[in-house]
Design a protein that fits this description.
Distance between the termini: 25 Å
Strand content: under 5%
Largest sheet: none
Number of strands: 0
Number of helices: 3
Helix content: over 70%
């Protein structure tokens, strides 16, 4: 859960400037939904997620967003 919290906090911090401008970033929106899918995969595994998601995959995607 600590790794999830780190990813969530990074996403929230990155989204604040876009929210102030009123212009959401599509990459951040997609990342945020993948974070929600990760929560499902961790806590409600029987529901399954439409796409494979893991902390490692999200960390890799995050690196692509911040570049």
């Amino acid at each position: 859960m600590a790794e999830y919290a780190t990813l969530w906090n990074n996403c929230e911090r990155r989204a604040i400037p876009f929210a102030k401008l009123g212009a959401p970033d599509p990459q951040l929106e997609q990342f945020r939904w993948l974070l929600e899918e990760l929560r499902v995969s961790l806590y409600a595994q029987e529901l399954r997620t439409p796409t494979p998601v893991s902390v490692k995959r999200l960390q890799k995607q995050w690196e692509g967003i911040i570049k």
